[in-house]
Structure formats: C-alpha cells, structure tokens
Protein 1
Amino acid sequence: MADLPHRARTVYMYLKDRADKDGRCWPAINTVARDLSLSRSTVKRAVADLIRAGFLRKEARYRENGSKSSCLYTLRE
C-alpha cells in the first residue's frame, strides 16, 4: 500500500473505518469527499487506484424500481 498515492490511502482508511465485519460499506462519493475535504474527482481517482491495486472491489447497487443506488465497496487486505 505504500506505493499508492496519499489520496488512495486516505480513502481506504475512511472506508475501513466505516466497513462492517465483512469489510463492506456503501458511502456516497459526495459523503466521502465532504468528510475528507477532497473533491469528488479526487475521491473517484482514489477509488480507481484502490481497485487497480486490488485493495477494493466496487459493485453497483440498484433500487427495486431499477434506478441506481449507491455502490457497495468491499475492502480486500
């Protein structure tokens, strides 16, 4: 993880703090950005960094009516 950008390590720790016992959480990008005082695009780049490095899995979630809900993030250590 040391070779990841600071933004990715910061977002990873944020997600880890909010994850359940199975390593799952589903915060909105806007929430992460606001809580960490980062821009939405910085959070999106950090998530992409974590996925590429194998530390995070992202899965789209949908409501019963078919509209998109939040994403489910699963941490991998």
Protein 2
Amino acid sequence: MKYVRKTVWMLVWMMVLVFSLHFFGYETFAAEKTTKWRPTYDLILRWINFGIIVLIFYKYAKTPIMNFLRGQKEKLAKEIKKLEDKKEDMANKVKEMQKALDDSEVHFADLKERIIHQGDRRKQEIIESAKNHSRIMLEDANRKIDSYILSSKNTFKAELIDAAIELAKERLPNEITDEDNERFIAQYIASASTE
C-alpha cells in the first residue's frame, strides 16, 4: 500500500511537470529558430530525464538489479570455489605424482645397483669358470703331450734298440773274436760271483 501511494504521487508530479511545460512553454514548441534559450532548455530537460530514469531505476529496478547482482556474485563465488577445489585437487595429484616419481627414481636406482651387482658377480663367476676350464684343458693337454712324448720316446727307444740290435747282428759276428768271447764270459762270472 505504501508503494502504491508513492507511485501514484510520482505519476501525479510527472503529469503536473509535463502539463506545466506544455502550458507555460507553448511558445518553445513552435520556436525552432530561437537560439538564446534553446540550449539551456535542452540541457535542463536532459538532466530532468536523467533524474527521472535514475529515480525509476532506484524505486523499481533497485531490488531486482541487486538480487541479480547478488545472484551473480553467489554464482561467481560458487564457480571460484569449484575452481579452487579443482586447483587444490590438481595440486594434490601433482604432489602424489611427484612423490611417485621420486619413489620410482629411488626404486630405479636401487634396481640398477642390484642389477650391476648381480652382473659383476655373474661376470666373476664366468671368469672363474673360464679360468678353471682353461686350467683343466691345459692340464689335460699337458698330460696328453707328456703321454705322446713318453710314447714317442718309448717308440723311438724301441726302434733305436731294434735298429741297434739289427746293426749289431750284422756287425758283431764279423767283429767279435774268440778272445772277446772268453773275456765276456770272465766278466760275467766275475760280476755274478760278486753279487
């Protein structure tokens, strides 16, 4: 009811203003060629129109505009809150990823160290195995060589003895005399008696 009275009074004052301008300023409507008072009149009416618009906005549009602005403010606040929450979640995820990356780097370094250690140990085992295998092969080769040398010596001795016997068979009958035979027999008897 209070707003209705104010509105009615406002309309009445506006009508009084319009009629007063019409009745007291009828010459101004027909005077297009006047130059002294027209710019002042236009400026005053512009200010009056501006005042009316401000008054109308203040009376009737203030609450909806303020509600709209408050709604926009709340909407923007919610939007900012959402974005801040997302930012915090992303920051937490980045921290988790960084921690996982650091852990994986530590794990990778540990794994690398273990692999290098195992590789060094396996390399030493292979070297030791190769040394043992080569030692065994050298010993086996030396035994075979010794066996071949001994066999060759024995074969050579046997062949040498056989050749010497053959040579002796050919030469001795011509070279040994009866005196040599008696001397051999005497030496044999002397050596047999001392034993």
Protein 3
Amino acid sequence: MDFNQLSEFVTNHLLLVMAFVVLLAVLVGGELKRRISGVQQLTPGEATRLLNHENALMIDMRSDKEFRDGHIVSAVHVPVKDADLGGRLDKYRDRPLIVYCNSGSQSTQLCGKLRKQGFEHVYNLKGGVLAWQRSELPLTRGK
C-alpha cells in the first residue's frame, strides 16, 4: 500500500480512522498508567498462592449489593465510596493486600491510592471477581 492509497482511505473513512486512533490512545494510555503506578497484577492462581502461603488478605471494593451477591471467602468489604480507606485497613498494613472489583480496572486505582498511603504489598486481582469465577474458584454469599 503506497502513501496515495493510504491518504485516500483516510479521506474516505475519516470517522473510522478517528475512532481507531481514539481507541488506540485509550488502550495505550491505560496500559502506560497501569505500568507507571507500580501496582502488580495477580492472576487468580497467583492470588490463591499468596492467600495460602503469605497470609494475604482479599479486599472487595464493590458495592454492598455486589458483595452480598457473592464475594471471595474471607474478603474484607471496603466499598470504594468509603472515605477512610487507609484508616480501615491500617491493622492489615503488615499483610499483603489483594484488591478486587468486578473486572480489575477500578481496583487498580485503589491499589495506587493504598501505595501512596504507605501500604507496601498491594496487588490487584487481574480480571477481578469475574476472572476468579472463570477460574472456577469459590464465592460465598451474604455478609
């Protein structure tokens, strides 16, 4: 494909090209932001190993209803709307914390906040509770 064909395609399909550029920027920007934040992503299998061998704690940041509908066993519920996140989790400062939401995107932001508050061992559950379920790991219901 030469430059003339490319410019003709861009001219004829301007909206399509603009949509592609915007989507590419969002994807690349999100990945760069995640890498710069320094938050390590864990698969459900890696999270299970950390839970079993390093006394890690699961932090569920989803809404009250989502938590009641099904959460990871022994997870501490700290909804994202809770203003004093660090204060509620201070007693767990010496333990590894694995934060999760539904898909893993919002929990990455919370992990960054916790790291800024001095929590050293903070991890994000890659794919969130949805990935946990896809791995056929158990959930419990209620409070």
